[in-house]
Predict the structure.
Amino acid sequence: MSNILGEINTFFERSPAKALEITFAQLKIDTYHNGQFLQQIQRPNCKIVLQKVVNNALAKMDVVDNLVFRFSFWFEKPTTENYFKGETLQLPRPLAEGTLQMDAEKLTLQFTIDAPDKNLQVHVRHIYTEIQRLETKKPAQKELA
């Protein structure tokens, strides 16, 4: 079994490629409303795409397999080997208040689907486990901006 954070760090630190597509064996999506569990969805063979960007301290993640739509966000590159926790930057509306956590066994992305009425907000947690495939990619020029 691959070390998720280790593979991501290796890509950012040593790979000449500009993008890395990671296919995970399992994605578990949990949703909550007002702190109460709503539902859990499990999906096999789910992908994210990591991209190197001009600002060397930041990176971009494309979340390919989401409940409703594909989206991207920026985050600070991991600087540790065993555990990383950071905030998501520039989440697209209506997504807000995101965090990203990584260790050897899982990558966890959490965010809120925002609404004008706080009682209508939904909290979402993605948990990706077990890398199945790593594939380097060359992204389109506009994706690197």
The longest helix spans residues 4-14. Helices lie at 4-14. The mean pLDDT is 91. The two ends are 34 Å apart (CA to CA).
